[in-house]
Write a structure and sequence with these properties.
alpha+beta; 7-stranded parallel sheet; 7-stranded mixed sheet; 47 strands; globular
């Protein structure tokens, strides 16, 4: 199989992240800003499937310009625009950007654009210094300067195996996706995989900057090949075998802080991929645009609806390309902000969560005993590909007390197993050799724990807790040992017995498979909750656990795998979208999304819409839907008390050839007395064939919402399948400071670009709610300069879309105009607005004082 290796990828990266999430950028007249993990908020940034690599983003930023993009211009034209005119408009936009940069250079601000955006939005990405950001923030041609974030494949786990595993189970009889194109924004795709060879069209490598989006080898030489793109292409092909797949490589090998390589990308590369999806041949006209753009990727937790990524999704939709995105693999945040990532947080994205469609799951029998007492007995799930060949009795070892990695740890304290030294005592002797190692499921990398346990000579790995994957790990020889899942209660009891000095043992025996108790339920790892405008996400769910697909071929021989994650679910949904697009050729991209969401089928059991959206995707139901309702999910916002109310407008279109009388109802997820009142104005619509009309939905809180309310708006007509529109209302937190813990390294200092005073503060919050981890991000943060007498001098720094964490800035001693401040005392006020601020929402503020001692030797 042809692969490529780029030696230049072996450079050391400059890192700035919250477990691979946050951005580094220069703002205003500050020397720099870096977000770091703190104990108070760090837990929220650990994926269920382990720590993400800290991808390099440097001081890159995305600049969004106010001048219209190609999508804006075509929409304003209100009619069909030919390819020649589109190319001319794109050339005009590029020329306008060139002129804009030339005007900046005249003022001494110069930088090189890395990615240029003209079609889905008007803007670019670049590495910016402090002065450049300050000039851009003040420029009336600039909407905003936004951080570049890291992007990761949204794959939970994969198992290299023969062609066995669950099938996607999504089809539309009589249709195979022929005539549609699915642009796949991912790693490279193996063009020699026989099952894909006739389905691939020429794509583009955004990372490498050429037309050869092939999988690359790990630069460290350990034999790993990019596989995620090939796997996702295999799933799309399985559902829609007639669709053409356009591979667009936006993710590649990046070197982490520890020198190892992992797959990641950047937000600006993701947007560049969307620019290619709407214009695959890159000629400036979108007449060859993809029907569907599949982004099985995630910027974790970054569900900002004003972000460049969200703007690009909106632009792609208006240009006729439906963007299908992964919800993420970070579990549910209930009715609240938290686990949805970008670009799935975009209002116009078809955001897909994970349903478990496996009929049976592999188990083993396990008897756990402490002395003569039985702690538990019964079947337990097998998490790795290594099964038990025979019954075995093993001693159980917990990672308690001092270890090689933590020599001073208290005797009763437990290590997590993420570090190899956790498995050895302070003399370097293995604590688990020949035994079953007992470790907690604490959100850290389970693969790393398995690798460390195997290296320390453990015979098995017992993992206890709730943060466990639904399927098998992507195991290799380094992790080839039985990995079994124990309940949190069993593991805790076993650890308590070990602390008491009792002998704990486990009898493990093969048991085959059992009926999957989670069949047709939302997978525990699937992200769900609200995007930052209060919109329910995911929109729908699709099968995404243990699905059979292809790996890149090896030496001409086909290879197979099973995969799990919201990336796999998104790939299935993208295939379904291609089937429906073939069946309903007259639908716009937004209407295609609307019928896919509105026709989705509720899953079995009691599962709120913040877990399953409208339900499981159903291509057959979508292909016959007679009603298109937009938006497909409603954002009522967050409630501020019992006198709260909100209104949203729905646009309903009759897609049938007969007149329809349409009525509306609101169905809550929660049983009991209604906590939300609802009216529709008008109460019903009379729609002729092809007609469109609007209705205003009004809701108000009639009681305390507690943890929030959610449900569906049912839009129905006699003889037609009802459309179900998910909604949710979260309570707005009161008296929650969005900026605090402000400190200065030196309160007295002389202006200096090379040795600034360091301002540190905490922005946002991450808290544990009843529905899971929830976050309060910051939509806009200004660093204002004031005099001690209360005169506002202006803004010296501005940041948008901040995820919770600790930030640090270097104060160079310059004012809002970039000039050196006169000696004296100043007040620095930090003003933070929530992401969903409305008129009258008070900002969070925090003040600190500093003194400029002298201007001697300062420049500028």
């Amino acid at each position: 199989m042809p692969t490529r290796r780029r030696p230049e990828l072996a450079r050391a990266w400059v890192l700035a992240a919250v477990a691979g999430v946050a951005a580094f950028m220069l703002v205003g007249n500050v020397q720099g800003a870096r977000q770091t993990v703190t104990d108070a908020t760090g837990r929220a940034w650990h994926s269920i499937f382990g720590d993400r690599p800290q991808a390099e983003v440097g001081s890159r930023a995305i600049v969004v310009l106010s001048s219209p993009s190609l999508a804006d211009r075509i929409e304003a034209a209100s009619g069909k625009v030919g390819a020649a005119k589109q190319r001319q408009w794109v050339a005009d936009i590029e020329a306008e950007q060139d002129a804009f940069l030339a005007s900046l250079r005249e003022r001494g601000v110069a930088f090189e654009r890395e990615q240029i955006f003209t079609k889905t939005l008007n803007g670019f990405s670049a590495t910016l210094d402090a002065r450049a950001v300050a000039e851009l923030d003040r420029n009336p041609s600039v909407i905003g300067v936004y951080p570049v974030r890291a992007v990761y494949p949204a794959e939970a786990e994969a198992l290299r195996a023969p062609a066995v595993g669950a099938q996607a189970g999504v089809s539309l009889p009589g249709f195979d996706g022929q005539g549609t194109k699915v642009a796949l924004l991912d790693t490279g795709v193996d063009a020699e995989q026989a099952a894909l060879a006739n389905r691939l069209r020429r794509g583009f490598d955004v990372v490498g900057g050429d037309r050869n989006p092939l999988p690359e080898a790990d630069p460290s030489g350990d034999g790993r090949i990019e596989a995620h793109g090939t796997r996702m292409a295999g799933l799309v092909a399985a559902v829609a075998p007639g669709a053409k797949i356009v591979p667009i490589r936006v993710v590649g090998w990046q070197q982490g802080k520890d020198g190892s390589f992992a797959l990641s990308g950047r937000g600006d590369q993701l947007i560049a991929g969307l620019e290619r999806a709407v214009d695959p041949n890159g000629d400036g006209a979108v007449t060859d645009g993809a029907t569907v753009a599949l982004a099985p990727l995630v910027e974790p937790f970054a569900a900002f609806t004003d972000s460049p990524e969200s703007r690009a999704v909106e632009g792609a939709t208006r240009l006729g390309t439906l963007v299908v995105a992964s919800a993420g693999n970070d579990g549910s945040s209930g009715v609240g902000f938290g686990s949805i990532g970008a670009p799935g947080g975009a209002a116009d994205a078809l955001t897909v969560g994970v349903a478990d469609s496996r009929t049976r799951v592999a188990v083993a029998n396990a008897w756990v005993r402490a002395g003569g007492d039985t702690i538990s007995a019964g079947p337990v799930r097998i998490l790795g590909k290594t099964t038990l060949s025979a019954e075995a009795t093993l001693g159980v070892a917990g990672l308690l007390g001092p270890s090689l990695s933590s020599p001073t740890q208290a005797a009763e304290a437990e290590s997590g197993g993420s570090t190899l030294g956790d498995f050895f005592n302070t003399r370097g002797v293995s604590r688990v050799a020949g035994r079953a190692a007992l470790v907690p499921a604490d959100g850290r990398s389970l693969e790393a724990k398995a690798r460390n346990a195997k290296a320390a000579g453990a015979a098995a790995l017992l993992v206890y807790g709730t943060a466990l994957p639904a399927g098998a790990l992507d195991a290799d020889q380094a992790t080839a040992l039985p990995i079994l899942a124990l309940s949190g209660e069993t593991g805790a009891d076993a650890m308590d017995a070990l602390r008491e000095g009792r002998q704990v043992s486990a009898v493990l025996a093969p048991a085959g498979t059992v009926v999957n108790p989670g069949l047709d339920a939302v997978a525990g790892f699937s992200s769900g909750g609200l995007s930052f405008d209060g919109r329910v996400k995911p929109d729908v769910v699709a099968p995404g656990v243990g699905l059979a697909t292809f790996d890149p071929s090896a030496d001409g021989f086909p290879r197979y795998s099973t995969v799990s994650g919201s990336s796999a679910a998104a790939a299935v949904a993208a295939g379904a979208a291609a089937l429906v697009a073939q069946a309903r050729t007259g639908l716009t991209a937004s209407e295609l999304r609307a019928v896919l969401v509105g026709s989705a089928q509720p899953l079995g059991g009691v599962q709120p819409v913040t877990r399953e959206g409208a339900g499981g995707i159903d291509a057959a139901a979508a292909s016959t839907a007679e009603l298109s309702v937009e938006p497909a999910t409603v954002a009522f916002g967050r409630a501020g008390g019992t006198d709260w109310s909100s209104s949203q407008t729905l646009t309903v279109k009759n897609l049938s050839t007969r007149p329809l009388e349409v009525v509306f109802g609101l169905v809550p997820d929660q049983p009991g007395p209604a906590r939300v009142s609802f009216t529709a104005q008008p109460a019903h619509l009379s729609l002729g064939p092809g007609a469109t009309s609007s209705v205003q939905l009004n809701v108000s809180a009639t009681a305390e919402l507690g943890d929030g309310a959610s449900g569906v708006v049912v839009v129905s007509a006699r003889g037609a399948r009802a459309a179900r529109i998910p909604w949710a209302i979260a309570p707005r937190p009161g008296d929650l400071a969005l900026v605090d813990s402000v400190s200065l390294s030196n309160w007295e200092f002389a202006p200096s670009k090379s040795a600034p005073a360091v301002l540190a503060f905490r922005a946002g919050h991450a808290v544990s709610g009843s529905g899971g981890e929830q976050i309060e991000p910051v939509g806009l943060l200004d660093l204002e300069l004031w005099t001690p007498k209360g005169k506002r001098l202006g803004v010296i720094a501005r940041m948008r879309d901040l995820l919770p964490g600790r930030y640090a800035f270097g104060l160079t001693g310059r004012g809002p105009d970039g000039k050196v401040l006169e000696p004296g005392t100043y007040v620095l006020r930090l003003r933070a607005q929530p992401v969903d601020a409305v008129d009258g929402t008070p900002p969070s503020t925090a003040d600190t004082v500093f003194r400029i001692t002298t201007t001697k030797g300062a420049s500028g």
